[in-house]
Amino acid sequence: MHTETIEIGDTIVRVSGAGKPLVFVHGFTTTAEFWRGQVEAFSSRYKVIRINLPGHGVSPRPAGRSYTIDAFANDVLEVFRKLDIRQAVLVGLSMGGTIAQNFTLAHPERVQALVLVGATPHGLGEDVNVDNVLKAIDDLGVVQASQNVIDRSFGSAASQELLNFARQEVARTPDFVAREAIASLNASDSRSRLGDIRVPTLVVVGNEDIITPPAESVILAEGIPDSRLEVVENAGHFPMLEQPHKFNEMLAAFLRACEDPVSQASGQGLSQHAI
């Protein structure tokens, strides 16, 4: 599958396939490559757009800009503008889920549907709260601190190859980017505005996720009116990497439901699933 690399401002974007736009946003210190398991599965029907946030992975990391949730949401908007995306399905992982929530609230006309993976309405789980992360960066350096989080992020079925891949990817994010991003993520709070998200929403979480525990996904699904909650068994914080087949089936079913006006009108396929 051919993938085009495009530089938009401080953002490197990977574009594969053709069709309706499916935009993926990764999480804190991770990269666009965390969506590698979705490229082939969806690029035959969709234009798969994987955003590599500024300061992460191969994207530029200029010292004079902001690395906050609001700044990242503006970067996503710039991608929409430069690629002439009028409306897309927006998929966000972890911090990317917070960015996606903020983007949807600020630009509802741009979002056809929303997918939140390992996300929360406020910060991250206690295992990676801002004080713990900043102390680990101070004590160990940003690379080791990020890799320690990765070591706790996967479920028990994850392979060593997958763990090694993730450890290598998160080592790319520099200290000053990680510090500003985690502080902004910790301060972000959409709990009082979840009811304002008025697009079909799929909430996905791994049953072994300790970074953003399943209870946080329940809050999202209960707060967003037109939402569906799916739990991926034998997965931690990265179900799209750990169980790509299961995740892709869930996402494909959701996309089909969003494209079927009868299902949307009746709510079939979009109701909440309890854990």
Question: How are the SSEs ordered, and which strands pair?
Answer:
Layout: E1 3-8, E2 11-16, E3 20-25, H1 36-42, E4 46-52, H2 69-82, E5 88-93, H3 95-106, E6 111-117, H4 130-140, H5 142-153, H6 160-170, H7 175-187, E7 201-206, H8 214-223, E8 227-232, H9 239-242, H10 244-259, H11 261-266
Parallel strand pairs: 3-4, 3-5, 5-6, 6-7, 7-8
Antiparallel strand pairs: 1-2, 2-4
In short:
The chain contains 11 helices and 8 strands. It has helices at 36-42, 69-82, 95-106, 130-140, 142-153, 160-170, 175-187, 214-223, 239-242, 244-259, 261-266; strands at 3-8, 11-16, 20-25, 46-52, 88-93, 111-117, 201-206, 227-232.
Order of helices and strands: EEEHEHEHEHHHHEHEHHH
Number of helices: 11
Level-1 CATH class name: Alpha Beta
Cα distance spanning the termini: 36 Å
Identify low-pLDDT runs: 263-275
- Integer average pLDDT: 92
- CATH topology grouping: Rossmann fold
- The share of residues in helices is 40-55%
Describe this structure in words.
InterPro entries: AB_hydrolase_1, AB_hydrolase_fold, AB_hydrolase_sf. It comes from Sinorhizobium alkalisoli. This is Carboxylesterase. It is a single chain. With 275 residues, the protein is an alpha/beta fold. The protein has one domain (3-266): Rossmann fold. It has helices at residues 36-42, 69-82, 95-106, 130-140, 142-153, 160-170, 175-187, 214-223, 239-242, 244-259, 261-266, and strands spanning 3-8, 11-16, 20-25, 46-52, 88-93, 111-117, 201-206, 227-232. An 8-stranded mixed sheet has the order 1-2-4-3-5-6-7-8, sandwiched between helices. Helix 2 crosses helix 3 and helix 4 (130-140) packs antiparallel against helix 7 (175-187). It starts with a strand and ends in a 9-residue tail after the last helix. The model is unreliable at 263-275 (pLDDT under 50).
